[in-house]
Write the structure tokens for this entry.
Amino acid sequence: MSFRYILFHKPYGVVSQFSGDDHCLRDFIPIKDVYPVGRLDKDSEGLMLLTSDGALQHRLSDPKFEHPRTYWAQVDRIPSPDALKALQTGVIITDGYKTRPAKAKIIDEPASVPPRDPPVRFRLNVPTAWIELTLTEGRNRQVRHMTAAIGHPTLRLIRVAIGKIKVDGLTAGQWRNVTPEELRYLRNIR
């Protein structure tokens, strides 16, 4: 039996499962017996890996392996250097949990990101900023909790990379098979 490995650009509003709500993975991916490696919330977008390889799914989902995932978060207001430093050293989120240190920096608004439907809320007197965050853990709604903890709620969240594998080349709703080189990388990611 051969395993399947798929990269998918999850659109906003899609649930990261194959059953249940309308707007779920089955509306986009016509392949049976593949399952998400981790999840993205309904209100998050971006790169997902799906596979039928249970051992790889476990390895990439288990926090002890600390594989990196990179996100772009559009946040309310412009974070100060101290706010970014807090993300870089770890912040207290849900139930008193302190996050692992993350890579965090302000980036220019990504030119490759199309407007979202529905649009992100706009307030004339409140600027927004984009932050690039790279985490090595993946707790439920973690990026949103982290940006809220520093006083900058997330307005839009896009996962742009799993390790060195990027969402580039996939538009929202598109999927493709993982290349042999990407599969070798995923099997050895650390």
In short: The longest helix spans residues 81-89.
